[in-house]
TrEMBL record:
Residues 23-367 form the Acyltransferase domain. GO terms for molecular function: acyltransferase activity, transferring groups other than amino-acyl groups. GO terms for cellular component: membrane. It comes from the Bacteria. This is Acyltransferase. It holds the Pfam family Acyl_transf_3.
Amino acid sequence: MTTAQSSVSVAPVQKLHFFQHIPALDGLRGIAILLVLIHNAGHFGAHPSGAFWVTALIAAIGWVGVQLFFVLSGFLITAKLLETQDAPNYFSVFFGRRILRIFPLYYAALIVGLLIVPAITQQPAGGEASTSHQVWLWTFLLNWVHPLGLPTYGFPHFWSLAVEEQFYLIWPFIVYKATQTTLARTCYALIAAALVIRTVLALGGATEDMIYEFTFCRMDALAMGALLAVWLQSPDRTRLLQEKAAARLIPAAFAIVLLGAVFSRLYTRSLLFTQTLGYTLLAVFFALILLACLIGTSKLNRWCRQFLSTSLLRSLGKYSFAMYVFHFPIQLRLESFLPLFEQRFAAWSGIAFLVVVGLASYVAAFFSYHLYEKHFLRLKSWFTPRARLEPSQSELPRHA
């Protein structure tokens, strides 16, 4: 008697649904890149007056845009990790998609700035020192050595990308298999630890840049965003927040940030209060605004979402990564023309310079995205999370 071969049908692998796209979050990214750009490219003199005082004030506190980026990253990364937590390709999905988003543009910028440009043109003052310390840029470790005085001409702003990459390297392993309760407690612990570490460093004589750039000093913002993602995994908690707190989120956020502004003299980075509790208050502020965009149903929350969903802010948010990469090198190249700006635009030279840097950064980011980055982003389809098969669905063929 011969044996007839039969098999039990295996259900096809199902794809998990990614966290839905929320237009207002693009607008928050747009706000963040505007704050950073105004901060880095602002040239308004020591004592601006009139309408320029407002612009100079925004430029002085624009560094808080990085704190907003951190809160957004903590939230979005954690939300997607939690959504794909049960996927058998959990790690390959996360790291594959992050590499495709960050590495092509990041390393292209380094190749052009550190290898090609020095080979064909004379390096500007400081360029050679930056080239000699480039290993820290290639390895995403700049934030640990830049505060110690190692120059990185053209790329000092890459410290924040280093912080985020270090977060991306560690956080997936913490989220993997963790329960919501454990993950929430981890976030609380990281927020408290960051505050304690900054306080110890500040009282111990650490420099302003150390507290500003060291990863463990900024992890409360990342953890604050991650905590929101954990909270919103629970429908009951989300419903409770909507019913009890949604209408108070934005007023509470501004009350907190204004209170901090009073004690920190408008978040002056060199002050002890800013370096300690001020950073945490800013993280809470941005987290509450983010939460209002996600669950708020009041008129004020709807207005906030509508404002952040405007086409201009969403467009800035879409290209914010490339704008962040390009804006500082563009600014350095254009600073040689500052005397011409002052001669041509007089009192308006600072505004004119800022507009030119902003437009140039946006145009460069636009073409970078559509001519270069987009082709790598299409490859993300190779890293789609799969649903874990039940044991009954993964049985091997049986023989009769």
